[in-house]
Structures are given as C-alpha cells and as structure tokens.
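Slides due. Your pick:
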Amino acid sequence: MKSKITIRDVAKEAGVSVATVSRYLNNNGYISDQAEKKIKDVMDRLNYQPNEIARGLAMKKTRTIALIIPDITNPFFPELVVAIEKVAKSKGYSIILVNTYDDDLQNNDFWVQLQNRYVDGFILASFQFDEKVLKGIEELQIPFVRIDRAADYNTDDSIGLNNFKGASLAVDHLIEVGCRNIAHISGPASYPPSQDRMRGYLDRLASRFPEKEPIVYEGDFSLESGKVLTEKLFQENPNVDGIFLANDLMAIGSLKALKLMGIQVPTQVALIGFDGIKLTEMVEPEISTVEQPIYEIGIIATNKLIHKIEGTNGLPDEKELDVRLVKRRSTLGFGV
C-alpha cells in the first residue's frame, strides 16, 4: 500500500525546509520565487494534497460557521439550515449545528469551547442578551450575526423582521372574519420578537376594541406550551373566539388542545400562528399564519457573517424584512 505523501516528503524533494513549505501553503511569510517554484513543481509531481484541517488549526481558521439554535424539533430551524448551508458551501465554508438552551449560553465555558473549536464565526438564533454576556461574547473576537429569537433590531449585527406588522396583520384578520374576544399566547416576554408581536396584538386590540381587556398567556414557543395554555385559556375565558399565537408550533399545540376539548376550529374559534412553517399545511384544518421569509433570513445572515469574517465591504445593510399574511381554513371558516 502506497504511503501518504507528507509535507516532509515535499520539503525533502524540493530541497527546502519544512517551515518553508508551511509558509508557502499558508501564504504566510517570505519565500523566494525559486523556492516557491520548486515547492509547486514537487507538489504537482507527487500529487500532494494538504491536510486542510491541520492547516486550519495552524492558522486558527477552519472556514467553519457555527449555527446555534434552541430547538431542532421546531421545523422553522431545519428550513433555516438549508439556506445557511447552501450559501456557506458556495463560499467554501462548512457549518456545524449546535442545539442548546439559554442556560448553557449563560455559561462562559460554552463560549470558551466554541472558541477552542476555531469556528470562524457563528449565527445565533437563540438567547437573550444582557450586557455581561454580550461583553463576554465580544471579547472572544469571533464575528457573529443574530437572528430570530436572538435578534435586536437596533444593532447592526441582527437581521431585522417586521414582527409588529405581522402581529397587526394577524389580529386584523381575526377581526375581519368576525372574532370579538381575541386572546394572545405569546413567546417568552424577554425576547424582542415576542415583545414586538405582543405590541402588535395590544395595538390592534386597543384600536378596534378599546373597551376590552387584553387576554395574554406567556408561552415558550413549544408545541406543548400551546396545548397547555390553550386548555388554561378556555378554563378561565370560555368566551374567547379567536387566538393569535406567537409561533406556528404553539398554534399546532393549540389546535390539538381545542380538538381534545371538543371545540370546533374554525366554526367556534379561529386560530392563527406566526412563522410560516410547512407543518401548518399538514394539519386539519390547515392553520392560517403570518409567514416570515425563513429562507431569505438564512441567505442574508450567512452572507453578512462571511463578509464580517473576511473583512470585506460592499454588502449593503438589509432593510427590515417583510412578512405576509397567509389565510387558511383555521380562520376562513369562522362562524360558518
């Protein structure tokens, strides 16, 4: 069996030191034209292929992007991964997927381990920032971009989305189909997207029904919380006839709870979610939703991160991304 050609073999054949070959491979330091030509000729003749992983570790650059997400079981995130991986691959980068929880991200060891893996940058789709943690991340000096739950649209490292408009569209649609007692099951109150979706709900309710008290239950974006909180909602507010949920996964959980309670959707209660995941088309009835451009978010975030990693200019700041109301049977058949 033929042994693998090493950097030492190349150096010996070219009549130069291993350090000189290393400088040539990493484009780091002076090499004479004569030595450069010898090394290239020997590499071609021996068909030498550098170990890219070893080179990356030596340079502390691996052309690797980490995507940090909170819940791989939520179909929103796999759809996002497809877009991120496509752009990363086209630019010569690979991605690693890190499924973790907020508590882990509060631990400094998590960020040290990320640094030790020599990732060139990361996209953060989970987590709420406080000043202490943000300072710790910035001290790592690893470029990053924030999306979805981690986004703060007042910063230039976040991809913006018009959550307020989306929530307004959802509530207006429920009113349009005839709902008069509308409840909101929100995401965690500490997340900026949850806050904006809550503001949209409160704004439209105050505008259209100023005499009515808001009905709000705080969820955690999981299917289970949608189910449990819908059961609680109807125990305490049996006259509710419309529910706006802060994401689609909770809306699916809510639909399950309503079916178990014998409450008809949409004839008795209209239901609308937020995100636009494909799973909303696969339940009965299909769930109305506010669709955000999941694929576009992944494309923009990855391009933005790679520009930050490589220190290149010319990528324009994206304006706030828009959302779209998708009307389906979970609302369109209300009262019929």
Q: What stands out?
A: The first strand starts at residue 64 and ends at 69. The mean pLDDT is 86.
